[in-house]
Design brief:
Layout (H helix, E strand, L loop, with lengths): L2 E5 L3 H9 L6 E7 L2 E7 L12 E4 L9 H9 L2 H4 L12 H19 L5 H19 L6 H26 L26
Antiparallel strand pairs: 1-3, 2-3, 2-4
Helix pairs in contact: 2-4, 2-6, 4-5, 4-6, 5-6
Length: 194
């Protein structure tokens, strides 16, 4: 797929989403069918100028957020904790909960590169692999087990994550480009923005 699109509140949010998406090299933001949308691209092929649209490369984005802060914000999200026991009235969408866990674990994995020893990285990779397998064949009965495994990972790494986040300095919570996890919302299945 060469494009991924989603509703977005600002060009800054679109730019940040591109910067955090490995495959994205360029982004485009504008109104389509009356809705403000962000398009994440794998290249700038087919680029055209159009009135009311903004675009840029992945380097044209707000300052990078610390991966540890993103991971902690996702894992500590009350809406995600409400899903720990599975689908319920307070957790109507297991897919979004699993997508939020994926977002958290991806950021732990990136932050751990070069900082964790081989055993810790292998543990993170195992948890990530289990979550990927779950997402490929979602079974609501298995979700509490997956969530428990993920919680164990975050509990084991909590001290390190908190120290790294503290050392990186505060996140400006007024920044309109912050992902859903800083706004109290679960990720959607394809992105954590919008």
């Amino acid at each position: 797929r060469s494009s991924d699109k989603f509703e977005a509140g600002s060009a800054a949010l679109c730019a940040r989403a591109c910067a955090e998406t490995m495959e994205c090299t360029h982004w485009t933001y504008g109104e389509q069918a009356g809705v403000a949308r962000c398009f994440l691209r794998k290249s700038d092929a087919g680029r055209e100028e159009a009135e009311g649209w903004q675009a840029g490369s992945r380097d044209c984005a707000p300052p990078e957020l610390p991966g540890t802060a993103l991971a902690l914000a996702a894992a500590e999200l009350p809406a995600l904790r409400a899903c720990d026991e599975g689908r319920s009235e307070s957790c109507p969408d297991i897919r979004r909960a699993a997508a939020t866990w994926r977002y958290a674990i991806e950021h732990v994995s990136r932050a751990g590169e070069g900082a964790f020893d081989a055993d810790a990285m292998m543990y993170v990779a195992e948890i990530q692999s289990g979550l990927d397998a779950f997402m490929a064949h979602i079974s609501e009965d298995n979700y509490p087990i997956v969530a428990d495994n993920n919680r164990q990972l975050f509990n084991a790494l909590r001290g390190w994550l908190e120290a790294q986040t503290r050392d990186a300095g505060p996140v400006d919570l007024q920044d309109p480009s912050l992902p859903n996890v800083f706004r109290g919302r679960l990720c959607v299945t394809s992105a954590c923005y919008g």
